[in-house]
Design brief:
By secondary structure, the protein is an alpha/beta fold. Strands 9-8-10-11-13-12 form a 6-stranded parallel β-sheet, with helices on both faces. Helix 6 links the parallel strand 3 and strand 4. It is globular and about 80 Å long.
């Protein structure tokens, strides 16, 4: 029987010896590769932290002791060790095991996380609460070297250091977040990681020992341990020491014996402690080791080759955006591109390659990205900031104060807007219309297909004011590719003329709107289909032409509160137009779970059949 089959909770680790735990680590890596190859998910980062997870659960006592993991990119081994191995076939599936830390799923998941760089703030809060409540358990946070560069993490470190709380921070340093890490702090860590004292310490001491033939085993053991401790003192962890942490490391993150020994030795150290652990992203699976960025998040793949099972790659909105950015960059030298640690995910890798001096990856620092872009725009450049919708939420204040207040020409490319498959509640891009539309000077656009996305980028550059373009994680359908050109601010487009009711389908909902119109025809209902294109600019002239209809229906991938539909209702109320009844098909004011887009639409009643049934009910009332 495998050791893995015997591990159903962290307590089961306590009876294992180091060789047995090493064997367990290998079994866990094999299990991860086999499981994720079927379901998809985050692979390379999880392979890298298997040994850290085993060591932490061996040395700590979860769930009494709190282990806070930063996002889900490195939590799969933790889930395996805490009794969820038998659910990995449901990973990231509708109703299945979450790909992120989720406290409702297990008592061992100390705090819900999804966005990066929260673990230090969470752990600090838990440590302070523990002290105020007179408790004595341990608190540990695991954070990557990409996540620790975030402003939130640095703010937490600043406060942890001065609080003198007993708290362990394990810095998992693999020189990668999703893409290769950038910035001064990353370079600083790289200097520690590659310093001669780290690389050569073991070789140097061993050479010395070998040159003294009469040395005894006891003395040798003493010197090896002394070497280890001296190595800690020699390392350039000065930054962390100055922030108030006791710094240890770097140590080999794949040497279980060493990790466990160090964790046990520093277990009684008072105050904040930072253990710097160097790991290899993708450890144990050759394709992931070679191309760790490609195996950060993967679709199902062939284990033997690492190649994806589904090779029928369709053009996505992200692909269209990336190609268009290169085209724009070629004709306008003022255009610069900015992203927050996701050049590949946002489609900007091509732009970075063609125009390296005009491409800026600011690491996991969305707030900085926006203000950085605002200053560029103020200075005469035309910045395009490409960030996922859910992550741009972190820069709300900067968009208002640094961009919109000065009416600066910054373009926001909001990828993964609307329903996002697989990642669950924390990654749904269903709030951007609401949090952007009310900002003065901001125009929010939503393309129905790739052709319109390309046109909107040109339109936004010509507008010279703040513009956000939201598009989904979806293939480019090219439905209605030959339609009215986008030349006038706030001008909508009629795609199909009907006689009884009007459907206003925004952006990614246009295809579904067309499907609804066709089904309604079969039931003898004639509907007009409109592509508004603008989420917060209302074509009052066109709306006036709809006043004879009994009903208007809006469709959008955004929550109801503050969305396009509510904005439309408000605009009509203020216009004085005698209006028909308005009904909204939106995301309910809640957090949609993980699943495919189709599964989530079905759950929310936003599939075509459900929409048609509801329209029929309303029309028959």
């Amino acid at each position: 029987m495998r050791y893995l089959d015997k591990i159903n909770c962290p307590a089961d680790l306590k009876g294992l010896r180091i060789p047995q735990m090493n064997a367990l680590a290998g079994e866990m890596r094999d299990f991860l590769v086999q499981s994720v190859s079927k379901t998809g998910g985050h692979l390379a980062s999880n392979l890298g932290v298997v040994d850290i997870a085993i060591a932490l659960h061996y040395c700590l006592n979860s769930p009494v002791d709190k282990i806070v993991w930063d996002v889900g990119h490195q939590c799969y081994p933790h889930k395996i060790l805490t009794g969820r191995r038998d659910r990995f076939d449901t990973l990231r599936q509708f109703g299945g095991l979450s790909g992120f830390i989720k406290s409702s799923e297990s008592e061992h998941d100390a705090f819900d996380v999804g966005h990066s760089s929260t673990s230090l703030s969470v752990a600090h809060g838990m440590a302070v609460a523990r002290d105020l409540l007179g408790q004595n358990h341990r608190v540990a946070a695991v954070i990557g070297d990409g996540a620790i560069t975030s402003g939130l993490a640095l703010e937490a470190m600043n406060n942890i250091g001065r609080s003198n709380s007993d708290l362990l921070v394990v810095l998992n340093d693999n020189n990668m977040s999703i893409s290769e890490n950038v910035g001064a702090l990353s370079s600083y860590l790289g200097g520690i990681r590659t310093s001669p004292s780290y690389i050569g310490a073991k070789q140097g001491v061993q050479s010395f020992l070998d040159s003294v033939p009469t040395i005894g085993k006891v003395t040798e053991s003493f010197l090896v341990k002394t070497k280890t401790r001296l190595k800690y003192l020699m390392q350039a962890g000065v930054l962390f020491e100055e922030l108030g942490f006791k710094y240890y490391g770097p140590i080999d993150g794949h040497n279980l014996a060493q990790i466990i020994e160090v964790l046990q030795n520093i277990g009684q150290v008072k105050g904040p402690v930072l253990l710097h652990v160097v790991t290899k992203k993708g450890k144990g699976y050759a394709p992931a080791e070679r191309e760790s960025h490609k195996f950060h998040g993967v679709e199902p793949f062939h284990v033997k080759t690492g190649k994806p099972i589904n090779t029928d790659k369709k053009t996505t909105f992200t692909d269209v955006f990336g190609k268009k950015m290169v085209e724009i960059g070629e004709r306008d030298e003022r255009v610069v591109a900015i992203t927050a640690a996701m050049p590949t995910g946002t489609g900007l890798s091509g732009f970075a390659k063609e125009f390296p001096k005009r491409f800026f990856d600011v690491a996991i620092a969305e707030s900085h990205a926006v203000t950085f872009a605002a200053a560029m725009a103020k200075s005469g450049l035309r910045p395009v900031v490409a960030i996922y919708s859910t992550f741009l939420q972190r820069a709300y204040d900067q968009i208002i104060h640094d961009v919109c207040l000065q009416n600066l020409p910054v373009i926001f490319a909001l990828d993964r807007a609307g329903v996002v498959p697989g990642d669950g509640e924390t990654h749904q891009g269903i709030f951007d219309i609401s949090y952007l539309s009310h900002m003065p000077n901001m125009t929010v656009l939503a393309p129905r297909n790739g052709a319109e996305l390309s046109e909107m980028l040109d339109f936004a550059l010509g507008l010279g004011t703040p513009v956000a373009i939201r598009y989904s994680k979806e293939v480019d359908s090219n439905v209605y590719s030959d339609t009215l050109a986008l030349t006038e601010l706030g001008k909508w487009e009629i795609l199909e003329q009907g006689a009884e009711l009007a459907i206003l389908a925004l952006g990614s909902m246009v295809d579904k709107g067309q499907e609804v119109v066709e089904i309604l025809k079969e039931h003898g209902i004639s509907a007009t289909l409109i592509n508004p294109r603008f989420a917060n600019r209302f074509d009052i002239e066109m709306l006036a032409s709809l006043s004879d209809y009994k009903h208007i229906f809006t469709m959008e991938e955004n929550v109801l509160s503050g969305g396009f539909g509510q904005g439309l209702a408000s605009a009509l109320a203020c216009s004085g137009i005698i209006t028909p009844k308005i009904h909204h098909f939106t995301i309910t004011n809640d957090f949609p779970p993980q699943g495919t887009r189709q599964e989530i639409f079905g759950l929310l009643g936003l599939d075509a059949e459900s929409i048609v049934r509801r329209i029929q009910e309303i029309c028959n009332e």
